[in-house]
Amino acid sequence: DIQMTQSPASLSASLGETVTIECRASEDIYNGLAWYQQKPGKSPQLLIYNANSLHTGVPSRFSGSGSGTQYSLKINSLQSEDVASYFCQQYYNYPPYTFGAGTKLELK
Amino acid sequence: EVQLVESGGGLVQPGRSMKLSCAASGFTFNNYDMAWVCQAPKKGLEWVATISYDGSSTYYRDSVKGRFTISRDNAKSTLYLQMDSLRSEDTATYYCARAYYGYDYFDYWGQGVMVTVSS
Question: Three-class SS of residue A60?
Fold first, then answer.
């Protein structure tokens, strides 16, 4: 199984700041990576797929990058509505599809 | 608008069974693989099972193999998860999710249904 190591586990940032969340796969996943946002009490929502493609309707302040085993999610100009948990998921090699443990983003 | 609405959760005793349903609308259901993903309280996401668009192929995580069965009724645009021999560690919110064809990331999710396994 491919293991996904996500960091940091939690993050505190100010409005307008840029934040970056990292995800490392235990082997090459050839850009088969998605990022999800989960607001408190809500279901996950797709943000990014294929490592760097923005899902329909997602604000352009979200972006994804990376290759091989190292990937990142960047949020530019942090807004209050971005307070959420963020999860990465690999879908290159399955079963199983595997998720990172998540990053909880809070406002400073 | 894509909608996925789960039902069937609740409290169940260890060793008993429960069946979840997910009613889909707003897209051509039989064109898409579908999946169940769970989330234990205050924990991360865990993929449970996937079924192909026509029901011919199914995949399960190891911890539910032989206990859970994913199925679908394309005529009713409904996805199911039959959960047998339930354990306390199966306690979680279960989400129905649509898998984007060819890639299998999950592009739409339901609101989730809580399953509590406890005596």
Answer: coil
